[in-house]
Amino acid sequence: MMPPKFQLLALLVFAVAMFFLENQIQKLEESRGKLERAIARHEVREIEQRHTQDGQQRERGEGPAGAGAAAGGGRAGLPDAEDVVIIYNRVPKTASTSFTNIAYDLCGKNRYHVLHINTTKNNPVMSIQDQVRFVKNVTEWREMKPAFYHGHVSFLDFTKFGVKKKPIYINVVRDPIERLTFDECVSAGGSDCAPEKLWLQIPFFCGHYSECWNVGSPWALEQAKYNLVNEYMLVGVTEELEDFVMILEAALPRFFRGATELYKTGKKSHLRKTTEKKPPTKESTAKLQQSAIWKMENEFYEFALEQFQFVRAHAVREKDGELYLLAQNFFYEKIYPKN
Description:
The protein is of the alpha/beta class. The strands form two sheets. The protein has a five-stranded parallel sheet. It has a two-stranded antiparallel ribbon with strand order 6-7. Helix 8 packs parallel to helix 13 and helix 9 runs antiparallel to helix 11. The longest helix is centred in the first third of the chain and has 56 residues.
């Protein structure tokens, strides 16, 4: 057996080595963050420069015929069809990557920009100063419009900042237990699958209020429901993602023209489903369902599901196993005065 003083020396060496390793990892993380920001700034400068050059060409009459008129007199006066921003504040583990890939695949063809909101350590809550910066960027960054922003960020109410034209919010939710299923972890009571980990979809929809992140808050649940029906144009469910894509294509063809076909047959169609997971056992499910937190998250999910199915029932029909969109069901008449 090693003498005590050598044991102590080995322990000290190990502690110093671990401290050095953690310090190096932290430095690497900081360097990676700086590199990502530098690349992002470079990409932004390139895009802004390209838009400036395009605008100068239009002013000199060097662009395509009618380009200046079509652009509404340049980027400073965007036509309504171009002055559109969509925010997809994606909830983790809800097939968000699969859906976002569709946006990336279509952006070149449909001529819009896709921007990832990369927050430090994926923190879904922004500081008040970052909220101001973000709102200013989204509303005033004309070179990026039309734009599709996505990231793991909780809902942000733009009206608090005096914005007249708000962005269009969309999102996808998932059965709360399907979001995290680890039978061994549940049975062992591990922290990675504790009921508190289920508290995510509610605060993402609730937003940037302190009570939203108070686990188990009834107020947060009601605020999340309110925002879902009042602030989001459409909220789909992972289990019916194709229907969600189809309805978006019908409602927002400027962005999603071709999305349904791409979802069904695209090269990345294999990404539509998360890697096959072993279904949870009845014991694991029952243990999580005893939690008051699960009951609240499940209530929110059921609320979102009912709302989505209501929208779908008025937008699509099924025939021979295939979904098809309903034609326009309103028209104008008795238009006066006649002259």
